[in-house]
Amino acid sequence: MPKLSLPEQFSTELLHIIHEQQLSALFQPIAALNDGQAFGFEGLIRGPSAHFLHSPINLFQTAEQCGLLSELDIACRKVVIRAFAESGLPGKLFLNVCPSSLTLPSFRPGATLEFLKTVGLAPQRVVIELTETQAISDYDLLSKAIGHYREMGFKIALDDLGEGFSSLRLWSELKPDFVKIDKYFINGINNDAQKRQFVRSIQHIALNTSTRVIAEGIETPAELETIQRIGINLAQGYLISRPQPHPSVQLQLPRLTIERPITLNQRSTTAGSLLKDTPAVSANDSNETVWQRFHAQPELYAIPVLENDRPIGLLKRHDILEMFSRPFSRELFGTRSCATQMDRQPLIVEQATSLTELARQVTSSERRYLTDGFILTEQGRYLGMGTGQDLIRAMTELQISSARHANPLTGLPGNVPIQNAIASLLQDQINFVVVYADLDHFKPYNDIYGYARGDDVLQLLGQLLQHHFDPSLDFVGHIGGDDFILLLRSSDWHLRCEQLLSDFSIRTRDFFNAEDLAFGSYTAPNRQGEIERHPLLSLSLGAAHIVASQFESHHEVASIASSAKSMAKQQQGNALFVERRLTLRNEDSKYATEV
């Protein structure tokens, strides 16, 4: 008997695995962060244990090479569906499907539905998750196949957004109900401004297209808190639970303490500040009951619908009154459940969401959210309503306050907001790091290169400070001249400061002529009018840990910051000096880092 080649051997083994059903299913929960419950479970597949094809990567790559991708894909679906039904897991099943298998001639759109019926699982509980492993060649055919699934009641999810060959085009073509952001963009998102901006943009597009975003690959509490601050409510990853054959339905999420941003004044800047007490109704209440409430309360513009104290929809005044104005509407619809008339996709936000983030969500999504208002919750439970009008008024007041006290050159908050921000942190007993940033040899630079060029340097420094620090946690202020103040709560503040110094050193080279760069200095009059050589511009950062319980006013914090800055300026070149005080008045430990 001739010996089989390696591809033939793998093909034979793979067919044996498929026919003998030597595949096993694992499930990883997808958490709903607003209530800490499992929204659903992604079904994952494994080959035989202690076998090369145990790994899903090896399994599907081999199937693709052997031309058995469609056969393996169908077999995996059956294994996952059967295991999900037998486990009695709640929520939705996210079922991985290779898009290419849906465009093959052998594709039968009713096969999955038939198998679901045999295990007693409704298609409304299944989300077809498209896993893009190869380029899509026929979008029209794929769209038709997806259309068949939708007609049968399935939902559609797009996996690994941002990684695949054409994931953005797939989003546009297929209009999925869910998109999963690739874990690359989630890993370390709390420390990466560019990743945060990418994910924030995806969330805004999703709001505008009625798509729900799932952040996958969550491994740390900081990542989880960051994606929740952005407004993403569905999350998946090892921090929540690893894939298991029989996962627990009770999720143990880390306790999230979403810190409010440092504000320019003492006023609250969260969505909760817009809360209006609006009594809700349940799905058991009739349309007649709702109409009576709208008729009796002319100022009432919308009524939330609750189920177990959680919002499931929104009834709008205009819709209800218009329906009852038509002939025979009261006789036909009056006794029916009000849920038949509700908007099933209202804007629901946690009360701890910042006004800035709320404004992003409202303005980047459908216009109706601005007119209909939004539902406010706490850990998923209903609190009340907020209006677009109140949001616009609050944002306008914040912007006016910010502009009134901003530095005219950099646009950064000036002395009054700096003092208020420090006072707010001390009052709330929040520890932080204060950093005094000051340019070295700035006066002689102005004398030689001119004040306009000096202003350009200050504007650059203001931009770099905003770029290197997290606006959701850190505060950047401009005292005046070349003096800046930072109030930092980012856990990696020290690294951010070092990166700032490095970036400043590189970016300021463009502000000197070639001769001065070559010498590393330039000549200019000193304060006595005598010509002398001065080093090139550098940046000094003086930092100090502030334990809120040990300080009574912003004056004391300013004194500590000035002292740290003076020590930093004793170092040559770009330098960071950190002063750590064990007690407020005496014992201290000091060290300096020169970059």
Automatic annotation (TrEMBL):
NCBIfam families: GGDEF
EAL domain: residues covered: 7-257
Domain of life: Bacteria
Transmembrane segments: none
GO MF: cyclic-guanylate-specific phosphodiesterase activity
CDD domains: CBS_pair_GGDEF_EAL, EAL
Record-linked Pfam families: CBS, EAL, GGDEF
Entry annotated with the keyword Cytoplasm: no
InterPro entries reported in the protein's UniProt record: CBS_dom, CBS_dom_sf, Cyclic-di-GMP_PDE-like, EAL_dom, EAL_sf, GGDEF_dom, Nucleotide_cyclase, Rev_trsase/Diguanyl_cyclase
The protein's name: EAL domain-containing protein
Residue ranges of domain GGDEF in the record: 430-581
Species name: Chitinibacter bivalviorum
